[in-house]
Structure formats: structure tokens, C-alpha cells
# Entry
Amino acid sequence: MNPIKHVAIIMDGNGRWGLKHKNSRNAGHKEGVRTVEKIIKASVKNKIKFLTLYAFSTENWKRPKKEINFLFNLLESFLLNKIEDLHKQNIKLKILGYKKFSLKLNKLLNKSEKKTSKNTKLQINLALNYGSKSELINAFKKVHKNNKRINEKNLVKNLQTKDIPDPDLLIRTGNTKRLSNFLLWQLAYSEIFFEKKLWPDFNEKDYNDIIKNYKKIKRNFGNI
Ligand code: FPP
# Structure
């Protein structure tokens, strides 16, 4: 059976869920936070060590200001309400992406990362203002600046995920099949599951079923 250490998730479908059920995209984001909480719990139960959640891409800045503000307010209250609880559960929080938010949110993110930095049960990587192409360009630039050879080892050392193993499994909810500039390097050999359900409808059973199916796959990594 395949071991599973790292699950990455593109949490898609909040907007559509919100419009369908409450005539408001933001209501979908609010409901999406509940799914985040369920999936964190289920990850602990499944003894997963790394959970990477795509919460805001570099392209998401194109959205209306009202929606962007709502998302960051949600994130802020999630951290204010939950960080103590996550810490008690020995969960570590790491931000992927460049912290170019309000001074208040940047401080809260730094504080949350610092508080949980020694925790070992599960590491949640929250991708915020994250874009894989710019991560790669910056990594190549750093290798070049340090006069090192461009090779896999040196590049990986300069990615934002440098201390994190590559995802074993990528799940994208929301019935869309694309990567949306997410972990393009790191997903090279990940197993990919596209889920029809919208993120707010995705639940622990759906997650466990995907993990069960993932475990049955024969992973060859190019071998036979
Ligand atoms: C994609 O759905 C979802 C996002 C861009 C935001 C994800 C954010 C959350 C789940 C809530 C905040 C997270 C935390 C960790 C507190 P979409 O809006 O693109 O959906 P659509 O495709 O239906 O429009």
C-alpha cells in the first residue's frame, strides 16, 4: 500500500456554491472554511504529515476588492479563533507565497507561524499570494546569483517548499481539471484526483475515499 505523507488541495468551487445556495459568492467562502476545518481533522486522523491548501493565488488579486477583503477577513478570524487550538493539537502553520498583505495580517501570519513552528503532528502549508511560476523564476535567480550550477538539487533548495517533501496526492474540487499555477515543479509525480463536488460540499468521507483509492495505486516514478 502506498504511504501518504503530503496531500495538496486546490479548494475550488466556493463561489459557485455560494451563488447557488445563498446568492452570494462570499457565503461560499465562509462555508469553505468549515470544510477546511473538517479536512484538517481528517488529515490528523489519517496521520498525514503535510497538508498544503491553496487559499489565494497571485492571480486571485484580479477579483473584486470586496471579495478579496472578505477572504482576508475570513482568514484573519480563522487564525484569531483557531491558532491556539491548532497549537494545542501540535499542528504547525507555514505560509507559502509572499506576505504582501496589510500590516495587521502580515503580523498575525508571522505570529501564528512562530507560535506553531516547533509542532510536529501535522504541518499545514497555507498558500497565500502564491504562484508557482514566480516561485520558480525566483529560485532560478537565486541559484544564478549564488554562482551555483542550475541543477535539480540547487533549484529545490531555493523553492519556498525547500523543507517539504513533494505532494503524494493532489486533490482539486469543483469539477475543473487544471493546475492553476499551483506547485508546478512539486507536483511532477503526484497522483491527481479531480473531484466533482464543490469545496463546501466536500466532506471527510470523500477525502477518506480518495486516500483509500490513492493507496491502491501502483506508483512507478518512471520505472516499471
Ligand atoms: C476557490 O473557489 C477558492 C478560493 C480562491 C479561496 C479559498 C478560501 C477558502 C476555502 C477560505 C479561506 C481559507 C482559510 C484557510 C481560512 P472559487 O471562489 O474560485 O470558486 P468558483 O470556481 O466557484 O468561483
The mean pLDDT is 97. The first strand starts at residue 6 and ends at 10. Residues 113 and 185 are 24 Å apart (CA to CA).
